[in-house]
Amino acid sequence: MTEDQRLADWQDRALAIEAAVRTAILGQDEAVRLLCIATFTRGHVILEGNVGVGKTTLLRAVARALGGGYERIEGTVDLMPSDLIYHTYVDADGKPKVAPGPLLKHGEALATFFFNEINRARPQMHSLMLRVMAERSVSAFNREYQFPHLQVIADRNRVEIEETFEVPAAARDRFLMEIEIKSPTNPDLLRQLMVDTRFHDTEQLLNQVPAQIVDYRELNRISATIQSHILTSEAIQTYALNLCRATTDPRDFGINLTDTDMTRLIQAGVSPRGMSYLLRAARVAAWLNGRQSVLPEDIHEVFFAVVAHRVFFRPAFELRRGELAAELTEQILRSVATP
């Protein structure tokens, strides 16, 4: 089988994952597509949204379709880094024992790690997760544990902010995407979610998603193949670079936000890592869209999810982050010349 044939075969499987997940998650087509793009880009993801909009169900559906080891941990103010590595207990004979924690339980087979409400965990936890996300490894018991297939998916509840700790810039930049999960607005979908008993039992709903549609152990290889085979012209590269430059110096591109002092707005724009992530995600979007080269619309599809959380506003503007990030990225796409 040639690489082109292999890519076509995997595209069919990726689209099958999307179709399967959409049977369990109504009204979240954009989020499902973005999470699929992140998976084949091999990037970590933050899901953000209100309570009860389906964040956990979405990631569990994707994890089931991918297969491999799956673990989750709840972010709490008293959570310690050691809680990820090991736990102690007393066995039936009354003897103390040490068992692997959620990070180590599956060894190299760990494929999806879900950090629920990551902003409730203290900075010590964020530091450990930064290491795990950056290097896909952790040191414990005098040895190094590797997780070559790991994808970290965290979620953040934006309704309750008491006793929470903002994820630091270094950790936020390690997440490929931040995907907003919105409640559906279509009355027919809302009625279906309320009335259809299929959506009342999450476990039964997830059991309808086929297990291990793809082999998670092949994801790294197929991702590398996508990156090497989906082309980006010089014009597209320049366009993506200008989009990222506009996050640092928006006034150079004629961008002005309503009721905002543009001279004091930006503390830092998209990092070189973020620039690389933007094109990597755009290549996967082009592949899923059946193209062999990236077009501007592929970049547009992933731009907000990849870029918005990487723009750091000065403290006076951070309370308006949601509003400002949306307006800024929208104006950037309108203002930067499209090839």
Give short descriptive properties of this protein.
2 domains; alpha/beta; Helicase, Ruva Protein, domain 3; 15 helices; Rossmann fold; 339 residues; 5-stranded parallel sheet; two-stranded antiparallel ribbon
Largest sheet: 5 strands, parallel
Q: What global shape is seen? A: globular
At CATH level 3, the topology of the largest domain is Rossmann fold
| Rg measurement, Å | 21 Å
Supply the number of helical segments.
15
User: Distance N terminus to C terminus?
Assistant: 35 Å
Give a structural overview.
By secondary structure, this protein is an alpha/beta fold. Helices cover 47% and strands 17% of the residues. The mean pLDDT is 89.
What order do the helices and strands come in, and which of them pair?
Elements: H1 3-24, H2 29-41, E1 44-49, H3 55-66, E2 69-74, H4 82-85, E3 86-90, E4 96-100, E5 110-116, H5 123-135, E6 137-140, E7 143-146, E8 151-157, H6 169-172, E9 175-181, H7 187-195, H8 202-207, H9 219-229, H10 234-248, H11 262-265, E10 266-268, H12 272-288, H13 296-307, E11 312-313, H14 315-318, H15 321-335
Parallel strand pairs: 1-8, 1-9, 2-5, 5-8
Antiparallel strand pairs: 3-4, 6-7, 10-11
